[in-house]
Amino acid sequence: MNASCQCGAVSFKTPTPKPLALYICHCHDCQRQTSSAFGTSAIFPRFTLPDAELLSCYKRATSLGQTLFCYFCKQCGTRLIHSTPDKNVVAVKGGCIEGLDWRTAIHIWTKSAMVPIPEGSEAYSEDSGNTKYGSVQEALDQPVGLTG
Question: Which residue spans traverse the membrane (predicted)?
Fold first, then answer.
């Protein structure tokens, strides 16, 4: 899938033709990060970062005490990728990917939702705890450094 920041300085292809999972997160951190009601993430196997000269990284602690690496375009500030060192998957921010189908997205942290959750959606009051990505789960759970 094609992805890019708002100004187009950073663009890349995802490593697989579709994400392993889609999340719409209603937690307070995602609301602050997006300046909106929720954040969106498409989960992909870890891949080499786009041109590192055009990216900057913000680091913050997660609620589980891990470090979240948040990569964004130096020119326009668009948040593009989130990663943690202990997973071999990354979250590509949903708004930068062309052609995603959000109908099957999982809504998480709905206890702090600012908008109604669509009827019939898979939804969890807090984190879903559902990070099973099928037959590739064991390989994806192995820590590997994000390169680029």
Answer: none
Which helix (H) or strand (E) segment holds residue 13: the answer is strand 11-13
Residue 126 contacts residue 63 (beta carbons within 8 Å): no
CA-nearest of 107, 147, 140 to 125 is: 107
d(C-alpha 24, C-alpha 3), whole Å:
18
Query: CA 148, CA 108: separation in Å to the nearest integer?
Result: 30
Ranges 3-12, 106-115, 137-146: which has the least confidence: 137-146
The CA-to-CA distance between both ends of the chain, in Å, stands at 19
pLDDT for position 144: 38
Can you give the pLDDT at residue 71?
94
pTM over cut 0.85: no
Number of continuous H segments (helices) and E segments (strands) in the chain: 2, 9
Residue with tokens 């020119």: 75
Type of residue numbered 45: P
> Residue 8, Cα to own-chain centre: how many angstroms?
19
Encode 41-66: b = buried (16+ Cβ within 10 Å), e = exposed: bbbbbbbebbeeebbeeeeeeeeeee
